[in-house]
What does this fold into?
Amino acid sequence: ANLPLNESFANYSEFLWSEHKYGADEAAYLHMEELSQYLNEAETKRVPLIRYHYGHREDMFDSHSYAKGGRVLHMLRKYVGDEAFFASLNSYLRQHKYSSVEIAELRMAFEDVTGQDLMWFFSQWFMQPGHPELKVEHSYQNGQLSLQVWQQQDTAYAPVYRLPLKVAVWANGKRTDYPIEVNKASQTFQLPVSAQPQAVVFDSEQQLL
It folds into this structure.
C-alpha cells in the first residue's frame, strides 16, 4: 500500500539528477514527459497513491506510484521551498533508517520541520484518487485583471482541491508574479495590473498535476 514511498522517490530522483546535471530546462522536459505518462494512464485508471485495496501486488507498479508520485513530490517541494524540503527528507531518513515506513511518517517529518499542518496536502494528493481538471478564463478592465477558475473534476471521485500556485502577468514588458490559492469549485481573483496584459500565465511555475 505504501509502495510510492519507494517509487515516487525513485522517479523524482531522476528529476533531481537531471536538474543538477543538465539544468532546469532539461528537468522541466522530463517533468512534462512524466506528467504525460500519468495523464495517459488516468484515462482508464484512477486510484489513490497510497492504496490498501488492490487485486495483485504488481498492480502497484504503475504510473501512479511512479510518475504521479514524482509530480506530487515536486508540488510538495514547490510548496515548502527547497530548504525545508531537503531538511525534512534528511530528518525522515535519519529517524527511520533501517525500518519500514508509512505515509504518515513522511507527513510528520515535513510538519516537524515546517511547523505547518500538512494533512490537507497529503490527504488530497496521496490518499485520494484523481487530479484537478481546471478551466481558467481572464478579462481586464479598469486596472483589474479578473481571473476566473473552475474545478471541473467529478467530486464524487475526487476532492475540491486546495491549490497554491502563482500567476505570471506581463504588462508594459514587465513580469509580475501573483501568488493565489484556488480552494473552491468556482472562484474569481482580482489582481491589480497597471495596463492591458500582453500575457497571463496560470500556474507559471508549471507545478500542478
Summary: Strands lie at 134-141, 144-151, 163-171, 174-182, 186-192, 199-202. Residues 111 and 183 are 21 Å apart (CA to CA). DSSP finds six helices and six strands in the chain.
